[in-house]
Fold these 3 entries.
Entry 1:
Amino acid sequence: MFVGTDSFDCVVIDGTVVTAVDTGRYDIGIKDGKIAILAPARSLLSAKTSRLIDAEGGLVMPGGIDAHVHLAEPELFGKGRSADDFESGTRSAIAGGTTTIIAFAPQPRAESSLLKALDEAQEKAKDSTYCDYSLHVIVANPTRQALSEFATLRERGVSSVKVYMTYEVLQLRDSQILDVLLQARTDGITTMIHAENGDVLAWMTEQLESRLLLAPKYHVTSRPQILESEATNRAISLGQLIGAPILIVHVSSPAAAETIRKAQTNGLPVYAETCPQYVFLTREDLDQPGFEGAKCVCAPPPRDTQDQEGIWRGLQNGTFTILSSDHCAFYYNNAEIGKKSAITEDAPLGRFRYIPNGCPGVETRMPLILSAGRLTPQKFVEVMSTNPAKLYGLYPQKGALIPGVSDADLVIWYPQMAPFHITNASLHHNVDYTPYEGRHVSQWPRYTIIRGEVVWDRDSGGIVGQKGYGQFVKRTRSAFCEDLPAWDVEKF
Ligand code: DUC
Ligand code: ZN
């Protein structure tokens, strides 16, 4: 309860506070970086505070958590190298309402340890970020040593790893995925799985190349939905064999979503993520004059308009646990490390197989989805913040507004703002395009607040946070998973 002598570092007055479970008009008092109190609207008006934010008419939510962000990664996909590092990527994040990101520490195929990859990513991120951050480790070589290091990952606050079922330099065999899942089960780690069948993809690519069908639009043709739904089904089966929790990343296909929903209905610990590109882009966006379509090349690819509806449905009905950006920015106009590295003299429209896969989107994720008006505000908070926090062991420090417990990470929207059109020039990433150029949005964060500090003030200074303010957040095991007994091969 508020006592008249209480003082705060910041008070947010009279906003409609939306969490994943409640909506109501409250004041929020912030002290020492934490939520100190939620009090009836306007009851903190006379409280002593260093800063007062009037949120009347606004929506106040826990800050966004983007659990799938590629930053400062080496050349894993052809010649493409990340255009964004931890500085520019997190600067972009806060301008779009995201207060915590989870990026990746990729283990190179030739490396037998995971800890070196984690050290390197932590070194890159240290003192460089505008928002709080954590890391998933990408396992490209599950050696005995790598598996033995899972326990150390947990000690260092990393409770998730990612594996790939595609990409030559990353793809694991099913037996290797089983090794990862078994170790993950033992150490309380959630396994993220990129579910596309790499062998079928390679075969399809050869079919298209032999017919000289090389342009960006054939990237979609090379990856039919069955390639995703088959791999999703297989990933679920492997997870079921081990009884380990899995998260299927960036689902684009309603058929894959159906498979996931069935598994969930059967009580399996299967979680799923989708991304804005699967509800806002279609394969038409890759079928543009010249090489332009390369801007929207990502994997899995955007699909058809009716498929977008299937993905919205999956968001609404809870099939998708989280919605992340899969921000993976490559310069467009760059022939060395960008999209145009796929152009050669004999293929002036490029060869789709060499186009670096990925689109920028960490900044536009929340505004685009909120503006679409397809999710209730509470559902929006659930998939954008609370569920990522629970799934990846950040809750309730993040993803909630629990007094005395949660960090004071907030995003404040003023829904009455004038709508505008997104331009790349208005964004804060380090790449020369956005796939959403010209798109109409009716929502953009007015304030982003991290641990009580305003870091984004749309109408007064824009980025007002500092590089280096962001902290590494140690994660615990997923809130969705309990301790599991030892796996027993004899039970089969
Ligand atoms: N897909 C992308 O589009 N980019 C990064 C990695 C991935 O799997
Ligand atoms: Zn990704």
Entry 2:
Amino acid sequence: MNTSSANHILQSVFGYDNFRPQQQVIVDHLIAGSDALVLMPTGGGKSLCYQIPAIVRNGVGIVVSPLIALMKDQVDALHQNGVRAAFLNSTLSPDEVREVEDALHRGELDLLYVAPERLMMPRTLDLIEHIPVSLFAIDEAHCVSQWGHDFRPEYVQLSVLHERFPQIPRIALTATADNATRREIIERLALTEARQFINGFDRPNIRYRISDNSSNTREQLLRFIRNEHPGDAGIVYCLSRKRVDNVAKWLTSKGLTALPYHAGLPAQVRQQNQERFLREDEVIIVATIAFGMGIDKPDVRFVAHLNLPKSLEAYYQETGRAGRDNQPANAWMVYGLQDVILLKQMQASSDAPEEIKRIERHKLDTMLGLCELTTCRRQALLRYFGDELEKPCGNCDTCLEPPETWDATATAQKALSCVHRTGQRFGVGYLVDVLLGKENERILRFGHNKASTYGIGSELNQSEWRDLYRQLIARGLLAVDLEGHGGLHLTEESRPVLRGEQPLHLRKFSRKTKAKSRERKASRFTDPKKNDLWQALRNRRQQLADEQGVPAYMIFHDATLAEMLENQPETLTQLSNISGVGKRKLADYGETFLDVLNDYRNPGKNTQSDTEEETLQLFRLGMDAEAIAAQRGLKAITIYNHLAKGIERDEVPLSEVVPLPQHQLEAIRFAIEQYEGGKRLKPVFDALEGEFSYEVLRCVRSDMTR
Ligand code: ADP
Ligand code: ZN
């Protein structure tokens, strides 16, 4: 009985056909009133695990979350689905707090998001003692771990919940717990009795790709974006602020919407750029690692690294921001010799205690190992995080195009002995010159034109030698000096290779294998007509999102639009079968998306203008919008949209559609003018304190653009 009501809510409210396997078990477990600890990768679908039990069970579900900035978005998204939800945190005014509290007392909420410090206030605890509570969900539960980088002292106090409300089920959720953190969560949150639901960390929809920056990095990036991600949202990570600014400017000059984000920008600019990234469809953020914490945008289609991250943890966390909606996404990285040397030097010259430095060195080496790998990258990544993947994944570059290797033993010996013969103090540029037998002033001054390795390297060209040195450093056969001049010296590991005791197989240089194009189709769909429809659906989504001031993905996810495009629903019932279309969204947006699909199917017939024409005719016959809606079986919002078009084309006068006194019309016009001509209607709506409906505002706006 409970299971069936959970399924019913999944379908009617959230518009999904089936639970994912783990979700089903967790939801049942919670509905039955038991505690749970859930480890699920990002994008695994954690939210439904508590949202649905909270709706099914009696009382309000209390969700503890450390990310205040996200609460409003989460609540907005629930409202879009018609779920009764609110949040309590420090951004609310005392009046707003009272409103939420009143709603709680009246039993009008299914979900309440609170910051931990707010929940622990005596006033809040007293409040929830007097109302029915369906469950406590503790999101980002790894924040209780003192060893983690997200530690929140307030989280430790959450064990109080168990003491004060032993009968209320609790669910703790996280995406980032290793065994030690998991034990800490259980202990500190008093979850010893809780059933554990442990899911792997794999993100199968992300395609990992790493290549060396053999050509111009920026050009490589641009080609990647143009070929594989036209019109997509993405994040580009760079190491320095200066690089961020340069790359953002350059991409902009190439016609892309690329915005910089780093700690050196004024807070207001950062805020603005982040906002646009969240709310618009086609924005690329170019950022230092300062960007990303608390970013919950599900449709980030790519994460590009122009520099090497410091560790696999950082790499996995940053790339993990792609494809939270489980749609295909790319984690794309280029790196080069310069990165390796720079990071090694930064580490060597840091003031950290030797013990920390050793750990950091190890982490960087593991990261380099991943880059130079010739086997499945996902297997290696997951193994590092304690997860086994039995077979190669088939969705990383090394799986898709297994790199060729060659026996580099003899060539590597030349490179290593050149280091040795020149005294173990020169950098790669100099060493390569010696190998190639260049006659420059420095070589002559040091007399290395007489060294035994002078001019013995004609089998490779300059960039191939650099490539080889990078691989030798990455494999730990050479180390970078401490003084910061980039001088190389031999390590213990190089001895067996130099002595010929250990063969060395390396990746072939990218130049030789690059002839094969690894570029996918130029745009999302090969059929240009489909591309047009895709764009039209996205434009409609953006328009609705702008009007309400919410991010586009809250209207519908990419996956939902893609399914519309695929299945071409013609009726509301057919549309309701599309994943992600619940009852509320069907009622609010169904008609307007069907219009877009109809236009595409019958461009000649122009059904859009037919249906508009019918509305206008009825209107001229003296019926008002509500009456036309009733007669035609359409929603009033659709009729108003038709009328707004009519106003825009000067076919009906505003005064007849919106019979308001002159001073009120003036007030609306004034507000629209104030906010970018009403591009977004939400601020206009708010400025007028909700006195006029969106339909009325839209009509006045149409009249102004006549
Ligand atoms: P997490 O919090 O684990 O990162 P979310 O709860 O944000 O993941 O869910 C990730 C995505 O998967 C969202 O787009 C969500 O709507 C979608 N999703 C979750 N459960 C299902 C399901 N049963 N069917 C289809 N889509 C789902
Ligand atoms: Zn693979």
Entry 3:
Amino acid sequence: MSEKDEKIKSLVDMGFSEDGANMAITRCGVDVDLWELVDSISAPQMTEDSHSRNISDHQVTDQCFDSFGGGKKARLMEESKKKRNRYGGRAQGNQPSLDGSHDEPMPLPNPMIGFNLPGYLQPSVTRILPKQDTGPPFFYYENVAQAPKGVWATISRFLYDIQPEFVDSKHLCATARKRGYIHNLPIENRSPLLPMPPKTIFEAFPHYKKWWPSWDLRTQLNCLRTNIASAKLTERIGRALASSDSPPARSVQKYVMNECRKGNLVWIGKNKVAPLEPEEMEYLLGFPKDHTRGLGITERYKSLGNTFQVDTVAYHLSVLKVMFPNGVNVLSLFTGIGGGEVALHRLGIHMKAVVSVEIGKANKRIFRGWWDQTQTGTLIEIDDVKSLTDDTIVSFVSRFGGFDLVIGGSPCNNLAGCNRYNRDGLEGEQSALFYHYFRILNAVKSAMARI
Ligand code: SAH
């Protein structure tokens, strides 16, 4: 793709019209930052209009967008403009780029326990959100904590400057999962799902003790990924151990441990390691047994590798229970296999209606299957976030009387540390879908403000 095509595509992926994107590039040139282009889609006319007609920014923004075929992006633009101003942006000479690459990196806390976690004593965090940012609708956005520099600053800037809550699930269960969550939920009076999940490998899977060598000092598993170690690798490890002394030489131990850590391998026999089974992952992640059963094994690993750690998310969502004793209406973006819904269900929060947007056929099948077996509310399924228009959102808002929760974690393909090939940040093809979360959330907020 030429640079121009790529920029047009990024802008279209963010919800702008192709015409608007083309005009912006004609005006500014193709070499400028994507952020400049976003700005320029409204800026020139805005200055002109506001000087000549002396009308408010709000009206102007709407008019600008009307000239690009509809006023729907206006709210999006206005929000981002406000955000930039609040965040510093150009006014302070700090030119932000859309992928945030000029921003300061967001420091990750150590230990990564978010605002609070059960069993951790720490100074209690208080936060007071401005009235316009509090729910309903409550929103909850998730992505990988270790994203390229500036990504979280950008996500935060778009989501009302709310600071992310970074949590590593290893503080709550036996497996690591470092994630950032931006949400406007209260953070007081949270309660964990009971029973609390096991926190160590042996508590979770006592039978692995039998073959676990004394020099494998792991007590917890690393982050569960979307793919697993090959049979070739586990065979190679077996051969290396078989031809070693007992205990093996340091160098062999080091090699084996390195692979075990990378692949979350467990000891299933003498000199024999293997990846976790999908049902073991389901258990570690807080899903019911066999949740993903019926899919091909590769698909099961993929879906599980991408999903929420249910206990972690449930801890954050638990505050909804007293607020909505009669249940919640949920807009679920990038539903996957339904980590958010499983969390609500396990909390005993009734879902009156869920509008679920998920493109993956296999994920949809799993989610629909779980829903039919466990829920009595209304489920509406939509394939693609890009096809969820503002008008459709307005109609859902009037049908259900608004959404109580907008929940989702957009794809991390271009952010995750292990992806060396197209780790191109928030503007990457998949990760740019974040902007649809932002667009859709704003559309819900505006529609709800009107009713
Ligand atoms: N939170 C989910 C997983 C999110 S992973 C869970 O608990 O399981 C991101 C999801 O976004 C994947 O399931 C992927 O299939 C979906 N996705 C990717 N592109 C999409 C699009 N354009 N519209 C809707 N969903 C999409």
